[in-house]
């Protein structure tokens, strides 16, 4: 332990998520953070090292009140930034119709109007912060400049963001497409270097945004484009994101137009690697899922979007059992909510319906089979640490390890002074002034019925972000 460089101390209860199977509540711990936003110390407040740090550090610790706790922020592993413009619209359509009638038009509007793009992306960043999302993997639009606005907006807002300029040289909308595979490849290359340039002058710890190669999905990308992107990814060690085997109509489209399965199209072009995050994967059979596991590719599971567009639920438990890294995504605007609390709840709900169906279908014959349901703790892991692991950013951050960036959200579940729960949380049966420690039942209650009223803080890389900027907005 070394107190040199400790810029901030925080003392209170921490909820840690070291693995899918483990959630710990650490009561009265002390955490130190240095000037670069990295954790320098984490142990019980009454340990000798903590006591020494408390006496030797000039700044007093920030005291997290009883009834509150810190836990890692959410990581949204799949969100279409421009579609925030029309969030919650047109969800009666099938995926391919919805893309034609809403998505492409909205994205084109932002590409034509930088002021609108700035406005939409600024509000999006504010909403992400308000909802406790500290890290996000974004799909943008086709045009370079619009994606640079997106990167700049997230960087300024203090949100960790991986920004994907869309690559698409095929489209149902003639005004929203790149001219050729060659043009699309040089645009992708250019965006990668310009996005990196926007943060190049900052010290490494302050660089919150990075580019990610983003072939939209198989129907909008020629094989030549996909091949070039696979080469570019390998050459520059870049992350890749796309949609794979998402929906019944999309899978049929690829079979009839390309005579292939999504997974083969990606795999043959070097786009199924440990640096790849594929959204959905609802229409993959066991052999295909085994191939995803073998390639080390991660999956962004978006249960709300699946319920509207996919026509089949994702085999979450089986995929986790196969060792695939999985995070949760909102898929705004295929999903209408950018709140990761709702993504977690939907993931659990869908998994429980799958488990119920499995039991009914195999009544009496398969009693010993493992449940395919996931529980709230597992969902909380996937919504926070799972996403970061998928992005290769996870080391140590789920358990506030020394050396990890300090990213956290502060949740208040009851007010000891008033003897009352916060927001939607009632009936803790507290006596006035009573301050019991945060228990597992209290965290579960927050997980089930908590909302934005319970979120009172968000830090990314040691910086505290302003949660309430939207109060009284125009
Ligand atoms: N597949 C290709 N593009 C999209 C999109 O914008 N949203 C969703 N949900 N799926 C897609
Ligand atoms: Fe999507």
Automatic annotation (TrEMBL):
Gene3D superfamilies: Metal-dependent hydrolases, Urease, subunit C, domain 1
GO cellular component, as recorded: cytosol
One Pfam family per UniProt: Amidohydro_1
Keywords: Hydrolase, Metal-binding, Zinc
Origin: domain of life: Eukaryota
Transport in keyword set: no
Molecular function via GO: guanine deaminase activity; zinc ion binding
Cited InterPro entries: Amidohydro-rel, Metal-dep_hydrolase_composite, Metal_Hydrolase, Metallo-dep_hydrolases
Gene Ontology biological-process entries: guanine metabolic process
UniProt domain Amidohydrolase-related: residue ranges: 69-410
Obligatory cofactor(s): Zn(2+)
Name of this protein: Amidohydrolase family protein
